[in-house]
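WARN retry 2 of 3 for item q-0093 after timeout on previous attempt; input resubmitted unchanged.
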Amino acid sequence: MGAGVTVQADVAFLPALERRLADRRDDLIALTQDLIRIPTLNPPGENYREICEYLDWRLSDRGFSTRLIRAHGTPGDCDAFPRWNIVARREGLHPGDCVHFNSHTDVVDVGHGWTQDPFGGALIDGRIYGRGACDMKGGLAASIIAVEAFLEEHPDFAGAIEISGTADEESGGHGGVAYLAQQRLFHPSRVQHVIIPEPLNKDRVCLGHRGG
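OK item q-0093 returned
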C-alpha cells in the first residue's frame, strides 16, 4: 500500500498510524456490534443483502467504489436466500500493487447455552458477545478500521485497496470467494496481495491459507 516509500519513512510512519488506531477503539467496537446485529445465519444464508448494503454505505462514504454481486446459480442461492457479496475498491494517487482484505459475512448456527443475546453485541468487561464476534465480523470490522486509519494518515498512498465481504464461507464458499474468483475478481492483474483476518491467536500472523 506504500509502494515507493522508503523503509525509513515507513518506520517513522507506524507510530502515528498506531495512534490513529488507538483513537478509533470506540469506532471499532461500534462497527463490530453493528455487524453482529445483522443475523447472517448460514445455513440457510440469511440477510446477506442487508449486511452488504450496510458495508456499501460505510465504504462508499469513505471514497470506495463498491459492487454488490449476487452469486447466481451457486449452491443455496435462491430468491428466498440470495448469495450476495460486496467488493469495494479505492484507487491510490500513484501506481502500485493492490492489497485486498477479505472477510466472510456469514455465521454458523446459534447453538445452545448463551447467557447473552447472540445477536446483541453486548460489551461486557472489555469483551463483545455475539455470534460472529470472533469468526469473523470482528476481523471484518478490524480491517475496515485499519484501512480507514491508514487512509487518514497516508491519503497519497500508491496502488489500490480493496475490501470484500463474502457469503457462504461456513458452507464451502461456493457463493462467495469461489464465485468471485470465477469472475476473475482476484486475478493477479488486479489483486496482488490478500489479507484474511480470520481468527487464530490474536498475536499470530500466518503466511498461507488452509482450504480453498
